[in-house]
Design brief:
With about 220 residues, this protein is α/β, with parallel strands linked by helices. It has seven helices and eleven strands. The protein has a single domain, classed as Rossmann fold (3-Layer(aba) Sandwich), CATH 3.40.50.880. Helix 1 links the parallel strand 1 and strand 2. Helix 1 runs parallel beside helix 5 and helix 5 runs antiparallel to helix 6. The N and C termini lie far apart (about 40 Å).
């Protein structure tokens, strides 16, 4: 946080084939923090095609992005092809050095881990990616949201909203976080109790494990 109060620069990584809700859910929360500025960051400004064909436009390049207070890295099927992306890895490392918070949603944690910033730390990710994350020397948590120092990571997709609300609370206080939660009417009531491998039927878990190839 800057010396003059809630004057925050919050950056969201935008890359080809990221999962849109990984980005948009946290953006919806964090963009509502008073006086926060949000930046959609990629190698260059312009449209980026997310998973499923939705286009989200990056607003600034790595080189021209301001110093960030918060960086958030979404997951998605495009994550795998970025694991050796030198510019991205360097950018993540620089943010990990200078930002107040470095965050990930879902398999975005694998990009943080590849950059080396999660080694020896606890972190969450999508339940199908836990084994992959542990191979980077990360203590994998099954928590929906996990905080370790300046690093905040979440489980898959929808958990990014939970992470962002907790981060808003830590940055701006309980009242601001309450207002944001009410503004977006975040009061989950899923029709089925199947949102975690802990409560999902075993046959559903097994079926998804068999389909999962992108994390291996």
């Amino acid at each position: 946080m800057r010396d003059n109060g809630l004057d925050l620069d919050i950056g969201f990584l935008v890359y080809p084939r990221h999962t849109p809700l990984d980005l948009i859910g946290p953006w919806e929360v964090l963009s509502r923090i008073p006086d926060a500025r949000t930046h959609l960051i990629w190698t260059r400004p312009g449209p980026v095609q997310a998973e499923g064909g939705i286009e989200i436009s990056a607003t600034v390049s790595f080189a021209d992005a301001p110093p960030l207070d918060v960086l958030l890295v979404p997951g998605g099927p495009g994550q795998l092809s970025l694991m050796k992306h030198t510019l991205l890895m360097d950018y993540i490392r620089s943010c990990a050095r200078d930002a107040l918070w470095v965050c990930s949603v879902c398999t975005g944690a694998l990009l943080l881990a590849q950059a080396g910033v999660l080694r020896g730390r606890r972190a969450s990710t999508h339940w199908l990616a836990r084994e992959a994350l542990s191979s980077f020397g990360v203590e994998v948590s099954d928590q929906r949201v996990c905080f370790d120092g300046k690093f905040a990571t979440s489980a898959g997709v929808s958990a990014g909203i939970d992470l962002a609300l907790e981060l808003a609370r830590r940055l701006a206080g309980d009242e601001v976080a309450r207002e944001i939660q009410l503004q977006i009417e975040y009061d989950p009531a899923p029709p089925l109790q199947c949102g975690s491998p802990r409560c999902a039927p075993a046959e559903v878990v097994d079926r998804l494990r068999q389909r999962a190839r992108r994390y291996r």
